[in-house]
Amino acid sequence: MTPSSALPLWINLTTALLLGRMRAFEPAEPGIMARPPRDPRTPILTGELVGRIVSVGAILLAAAFGLFEWELRTGRGVDEARTAAVAVFIVVQTFYLFNCRSLTQSVARIGLLSNPWALVGSAGMLLLQLGFTYLPFMNVLFHSAPMPLVSWLWVVLAGLIAFLVVGAEKWMRHRDARRTRVAAGA
What we know:
By secondary structure, this protein is mainly α. About 70% of the residues lie in helices and about 0% in strands.
């Protein structure tokens, strides 16, 4: 297995197991049973959801490729650049986990600690990613390399940007829905 084929496997396996599975333990949103059922003719992938997928995907793409190129231009090797790009995917997906726990409610409203399993999965993901980055046998296996602190700062910034973009999108959608309800009731 070449490093280029092992990296998507690493990203998909670790995020699916440690981040995706933690969503199964998410408590139901308050009032969920009081909501009317979804119209069965409504597509599963609504325009808003497709927009969110595209925006988070664009952030992932720009941050991973941007950091990869930045690492190379600052004199780091391909292994270090590759490690930074993988870290972007892991960290952005970890930030996104906390923001996608509800399609409509903010993290502040549902609570950061309402699903302790999300914290467990995120901590496990961070430990595995640190191993991927700093353990010599993982460096040999995946052709990864230790990253300096400045690279981690860029990685976390990418995660924070994704978190804020999704949060802002939810806030705007909630604001627009509230305006529509007020206008309809007037």
